[in-house]
Amino acid sequence: MDDSKLRYFASAWLISITLPADSAERYNAQFVNGIDPLAFNQFVASDGDVMPGTYDVNIYINDLLVDSRPVRFSEDSAHGGLAPCLSAAEYIRYGVKIDDDHQPCFALSQTIRQAEQQLDIANHRLIIHIPQQYIEHYPRDYVSPMRFDEGINAAFVNYSYSTDANNGDGGSHQYQYLSLNSGINIASWRLRNNAYWNKFSGQADKWQSIASWAETNIIPWRSRLVVGQTSTDNSVFDSVQFRGVQLGTDVEMRPSSQTGFAPVIRGVANSNARVEVRQNNYLIYSENVPAGPFELNDISAVNRSGDFYVTVIEADGSQTTFTVAYTTLPQLVRAGQWNYQLSAGKYHDGADGYAPALMQSSLSYGLNNTFTLYGGALAAENYRAGAFGVGSNLGGDWRPLSRLYAGGNDAGEWPAQAGRERAFSVC
């Protein structure tokens, strides 16, 4: 065989091998019953493509399953592929921070540029990655208000009894004392009473009710309503006992990690990373975050002072560190938190003496990581007082307090006061 024939057969053999590789795969729609052949061929017209439509999928946000439901997908002309049609209200329900909840088909990637969406049709998954900063970050010890339990209807009595007997030349003497702490729980209301009884030899016995009150929780406001004998807080003015009505913040409804002051730590992760926070060389917090901006708001400090040292450990092992200044004072409140109390009634000093009517209010608000605004007002017979101040965790607490005093028909005055307080750590 000459060289020309050899080259001819070699070329024909190569063409027979390479031509099928360039042709598209073909499927026989007759093997799939109940499907229109034209629609079937359009569905598989391009390898790896999925036609627009509605599919049952499991929705994952940052690798966390949040829902399982049918989702409609349409072509995404801007980014290619398919885009899910989820309303803004649904994203909010999934914990995404979105201001507008009226859009029926919310364009997530246009609002949050770092957001990514991917349809894994083989596993029926809609995979969404969103920077941690745009996700509602619940504290680690968070309990949903839906799980709050008022308990069962019940009644109880706690008691403590003691007696002393003395025998001497002067005769015999006996002293008896009984303390009672009783209560009744009905639905969301709790009725309480503290009382005591005592008797000394040769004298009439004495029964005294120390305090009686009823209280209930107002869960949407994270507050507690008290009717009866109670006392005001001491955040702005001195605490006093009174009988009346009080409505105020109940910090026990918050997660324990949210009850004290701590700054919100913000940063940026270049990849899936671990964030570690240390105070006084102790590791006090560790959290995994996705790529993008992050925000940590559930940190509990182990000391009243001592800066937070933050380390961001990237997926490739590289580290970035920065420092967040920290010190705390009684007036400081976490950024975005409100504490309030409203009281009205009559002063009660434990005796049947002077009992003027009074009204008192106090309010504090965490403006940001640095400043807390607080103030209050007090009104009683022949007395008025007001106060406001600014607390800071950078250098202490500045209290430009202003008070108004009125005695009888006097005009009163507004003397300005300023104070400064600083917390130090002792190592």
Automatic annotation (TrEMBL):
<dbReference type="GO" id="GO:0009297">
    <property type="term" value="P:pilus assembly"/>
</dbReference>
<keyword id="KW-0813">Transport</keyword>
<feature type="domain" description="PapC N-terminal">
    <location>
        <begin position="40"/>
        <end position="162"/>
    </location>
</feature>
<dbReference type="InterPro" id="IPR037224">
    <property type="entry name" value="PapC_N_sf"/>
</dbReference>
<keyword id="KW-0812">Transmembrane</keyword>
<dbReference type="InterPro" id="IPR025885">
    <property type="entry name" value="PapC_N"/>
</dbReference>
<dbReference type="Pfam" id="PF13954">
    <property type="entry name" value="PapC_N"/>
</dbReference>
<dbReference type="GO" id="GO:0009279">
    <property type="term" value="C:cell outer membrane"/>
</dbReference>
<keyword id="KW-1029">Fimbrium biogenesis</keyword>
<dbReference type="InterPro" id="IPR018030">
    <property type="entry name" value="Fimbrial_membr_usher_CS"/>
</dbReference>
<protein>
    <submittedName>
        <fullName>Type 1 fimbriae anchoring protein FimD</fullName>
    </submittedName>
</protein>
<dbReference type="Pfam" id="PF00577">
    <property type="entry name" value="Usher"/>
</dbReference>
<dbReference type="InterPro" id="IPR000015">
    <property type="entry name" value="Fimb_usher"/>
</dbReference>
<comment type="similarity">
    <text>Belongs to the fimbrial export usher family.</text>
</comment>
<keyword id="KW-0472">Membrane</keyword>
<keyword id="KW-0998">Cell outer membrane</keyword>
<keyword id="KW-0732">Signal</keyword>
<dbReference type="GO" id="GO:0015473">
    <property type="term" value="F:fimbrial usher porin activity"/>
</dbReference>
